[in-house]
Amino acid sequence: xxxPTRPDRNLALEMVRxxxxxxxxxxxxxxxxxKNAADGAAVDAMRFVLGAVxxxxxxxxxxxxxxxxPMLYNGERIGDGHPPEVDIAVDxxxxxxxxxxxxxxxxxxxxxAPRGTMFNPGPCFYMMKIAVGPRGRGAVDVRExxxxxxxxxxxxxxxxxxxxxxxxxDRPRHxxxxxxxxxxxxxxxxxxxxxxxxxxxxxxxxxxxxVLIGIGGTPEGVIAAAALKGLGGExxxxxxxxxxxxxxxxxxxxxxxxxxxxxxxxxxxxxCFFSATAITDGDFLRGVRFxxxxxxxxxxxxxxxxxxxxxxxxxxxxxxxxxxxTGL
Length: 328
Description:
Layout: H1 12-27, H2 35-50, E1 56-61, E2 77-78, E3 85-94, H3 96-101, E4 107-114, E5 126-132, H4 146-157, E6 165-169, H5 175-184, E7 187-191, H6 195-201, E8 211-217, H7 218-231, E9 234-240, H8 244-252, H9 263-266, E10 273-278, E11 289-290, E12 294-303, E13 308-317, H10 318-324
Parallel strand pairs: 1-3, 6-7, 6-8
Antiparallel strand pairs: 1-2, 3-4, 4-10, 5-8, 5-9, 10-12, 11-12, 12-13
């Protein structure tokens, strides 16, 4: 069996150009009430820049199937065709509703790993997941109750439960979960969208988030795994079907709804790359600012093999920005 080509350069530093382009393009739609236009602008920008990157990439997690997503669709080949061979996961706008309403927390994100090392969600849109930062690694289990996990996490962090920040997506399906978390005395940090950002926040100092719990997107879980590998945290998930028919169809394709998918199951390589650029302000990055000379962006860039985590602030001149986004 051939071993996958191992990327030996820091592709994350090249991917930041991709997320910057997506963020700037999407930011022009912030607060304008059209999440599809914002997402479309980010997709176009991402694909435009990705095409110039030296790599032979295949989109494992994209905007959907080819017929519904003409660009960055699952299975699309991206890059100039030269090695390294990589899997690509993109979320051009993590938090489309956030950007449409001009609220905080929207990110443009991308993750890369050697070919064949990213979990392919296929038809499994959702998973029950739990994510923690470096200090909480090994203290939680997605199969246990929120109460038990919070008790263990409190002991591990040497932090009273009343001071724990628990990120939960604001969805009716989480009403019981929110009630249970509050009964323990922990604080619920409710987010309306953007659970990639929520998972990353658990591994970011002073974000106030200690753990993310709940049912969210499986593709977002894979992307978060790439980021948390570099940040030293962990994520666990169990596939969750919306109905028996969805589960039966997925099981027929070999998906196991009883298996716990850990960080290494979601991204098997120890040499993965992650980049996120803030579109709107968030817990750890400032959103795009348009100025008289152009725009400024802030990005988070992570490489798991070296354990490097960088924050990058970039100034984009108007004249160069126009070239950068030609045809977008």
